[in-house]
Amino acid sequence: MTTAPDFRTDPPLLDFPFSWDGTRVPAEIEDLRAATPVRRVRTIAGDEAWLVSSYELCQQVLKDDRFSLKDTSAPGVPRQYALTIPPEVVNNMGNITGAGLRRAVMKALNPKAPGLTDWLRAEAHRLVDLMEADGPTADLRGAFCEPYSAGMHCRMLGIPQTEAPAFLRSLDIAFMNAPCPVTGAKINWDRDIARMSALLDDPATHGLMGELAALRDDPEYAHLSDEMLATVGVTMFGAGTISTSGFLAMALVYLLTHPIARDLLRDRPDLTGPGVEELLRVNLSIGDALPRLALEDVRLGDVEVRTGELVLVLVEGANLDPEKFPDPHRFDVHRDNTADHLSFGGGAHYCPATALGRVHARIALEVLLDRLPDLALAVPPGQLVWRTGFMKRIPERLPVTW
């Protein structure tokens, strides 16, 4: 005889993600972390998953190699959302390492690369000059965050700055969270791969893409096709730009809605470094969680996660866990453990661009707060429009005045 489910002990599935509003922590998080830090949810794709919201358990998932990123793209497994890139590209750094390209990529991601910090500072000043000439008001995301991040990635890849708009235009679709395949994603992917492949033959190409192009003459790398090399460039531009510009935009949202924190970093530029670390901890840009697939049965807190089940690491839940970060909603640049946040992931898939991301944000904030000391939102916070169905929480526009 089949036993009917006991709904007193089997709570209904929660729809995930929660709120897209980046000015406030979703109301569900604290209750979940306290009562059911491993909770069953329904994803955008309509599949079931375990949402993990405490720091301890999130860290366990990220460090345990029985939870796989690569296998989240396997056919037939539960999904967060439809893939917008080829399945084999999901584990990008693993693929880069397997192809023998990790050294070249890590060299390109080094924030101590000759001239990089000077370039970032000059570019930040250039963009502020343009804003001042046109404003106020200005859309800080469109006029500063995106071009600043895209420009850095063009420089890192060694492709002309004029290429930035062509690759940027794909990102609104490439990073969508949709329940079913997105027609435009493959169209844009194929176009961008063809464009990056052509840049391999451009004599002006240098930087990382120049190094990758030179490998085609090395018999040891005969297994690499132009498409594989172009994939490195396209994915690094896309993932890098959307992550750094998204974090920077959300860091600015936080400062502009918390003027005490803004004034502290403006008046004490020597605290910008630890300030960036706290902004990484409290920022809400990672609204969709980090996916992993269980490769075997694993005990996670009070829950037995079964082989083949999807697990979602809720970064904002971990980063605001009072068990790890006392008084977690307080912006405190003097915390001893701020850098323990999970905003760059963890374990084998810890983001390789952490140092670069920190430098990128620090210089941007130093320049903006120095040049525009009265920087403020030009609209009430409640009037900000938030993008939905996207891998990052970002405002569609960030109107500011100064």
Automatic annotation (TrEMBL):
Organism (species): Streptomyces cellostaticus
Q: Which keywords describe this protein according to UniProt?
A: Heme, Iron, Membrane, Metal-binding, Monooxygenase, Oxidoreductase, Transmembrane, Transmembrane helix
The record, for InterPro entries, names: Cyt_P450, Cyt_P450_CS, Cyt_P450_sf
The protein's name is: Cytochrome
Q: Which family does it belong to?
A: Belongs to the cytochrome P450 family.
List GO molecular-function terms, semicolon-separated.
Answer: heme binding; iron ion binding; monooxygenase activity; oxidoreductase activity, acting on paired donors, with incorporation or reduction of molecular oxygen
Give TM segment ranges: 228-256
Name the source's superkingdom. Bacteria
Database matches in PROSITE patterns: CYTOCHROME_P450
